[in-house]
């Protein structure tokens, strides 16, 4: 279990609840962004360094009014073989209150042969809050025989202030044939959640232009239901292309944020 909550004190974001247990590790956090000196960067580490078959992992983040958090992980996480009829599970619960901004930016998962993972991300975002969610995976066979993972199930659910779901996206891949990936070796998705009033068509055009400029990448951006933001889907020849795309998406997302701290809703 990994459970953090954040509040705004002295003009910047700080942690006011910090609970975690094996395999999660949390050390220092940092205020390092010149564009938003109130933003807190949190680096989540894992003592095990990998996800193993049968693991049951849970994360919860609660951002109080006016806070700004960027959560990243220490590096790409390996997902190892799961015994038959078992799989690793991970649930992530994100609650973003009024005027807050969350960047949930974990590094991609590396799926080893016979890996099985089921993950769920639930985001409850206030109407005037912002959020950027990344998710990505690649595949790896250490002996180079082209063996694939067994299963990947992923669900993303978006709510606004506890409402009924505005968006539920589900993906499930079971015992895939390598041919379905059409030569691509890495895949990603991003969800950009924004308050009303943004020009989503303009943002979609900016995202499309940025993604088109990355060699080895196929990407598409679409508006989300109820004009809640945008969704981005990515397929790439290599993982570095996904990382490059995510960096471009993050830059465009940050351009949408309030320029002045006194404009934040508190």
TrEMBL record:
Its main location: cytoplasm. It holds the Pfam family UreD. Keywords: Chaperone, Cytoplasm, Nickel insertion. It comes from the Bacteria. It is found in: Cytoplasm. Signal peptide: none annotated. The keyword Cytoplasm applies. The keyword Ribonucleoprotein does not apply. UreD, UreF and UreG form a complex that acts as a GTP-hydrolysis-dependent molecular chaperone, activating the urease apoprotein by helping to assemble the nickel containing metallocenter of UreC. The UreE protein probably delivers the nickel. PANTHER family: UREASE ACCESSORY PROTEIN D. Belongs to the UreD family. Required for maturation of urease via the functional incorporation of the urease nickel metallocenter. This is Urease accessory protein UreD.
């Amino acid at each position: 279990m990994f459970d953090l909550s954040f509040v705004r004190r002295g003009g910047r974001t700080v942690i006011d609840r910090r609970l975690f247990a094996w395999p999660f590790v949390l050390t220092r956090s940092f205020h390092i962004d010149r564009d938003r000196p109130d933003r807190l960067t949190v680096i989540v580490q894992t003592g095990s360094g990998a996800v193993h078959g049968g693991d049951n992992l849970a994360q919860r983040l609660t951002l109080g009014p006016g806070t700004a958090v960027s959560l990243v992980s220490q590096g790409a996480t390996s997902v190892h073989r799961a015994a038959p009829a078992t799989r690793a599970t991970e649930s992530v619960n994100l609650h973003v209150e009024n005027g807050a901004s969350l960047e949930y930016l974990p590094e991609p998962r590396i799926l080893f042969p016979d890996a099985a993972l089921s993950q769920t991300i639930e985001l409850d975002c206030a109407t005037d809050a912002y959020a950027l969610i990344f998710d990505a995976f690649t595949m790896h066979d250490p002996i180079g025989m082209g063996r694939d993972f067994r299963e990947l199930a992923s669900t993303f659910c978006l709510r606004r202030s506890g409402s009924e779901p505005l968006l539920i996206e589900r993906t499930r891949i079971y015992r895939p044939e390598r041919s379905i990936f059409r030569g691509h070796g890495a895949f990603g998705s991003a969800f950009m959640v924004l308050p009303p009033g943004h020009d989503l068509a303009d943002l979609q055009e900016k995202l499309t232009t940025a993604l088109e400029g990355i060699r080895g990448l196929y990407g598409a951006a679409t508006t989300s239901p109820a004009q809640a933001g945008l969704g981005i889907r990515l397929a790439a020849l290599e993982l570095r292309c996904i990382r490059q795309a995510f960096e471009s998406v993050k830059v465009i997302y940050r351009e949408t944020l309030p320029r002045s701290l006194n404009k934040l809703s508190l």
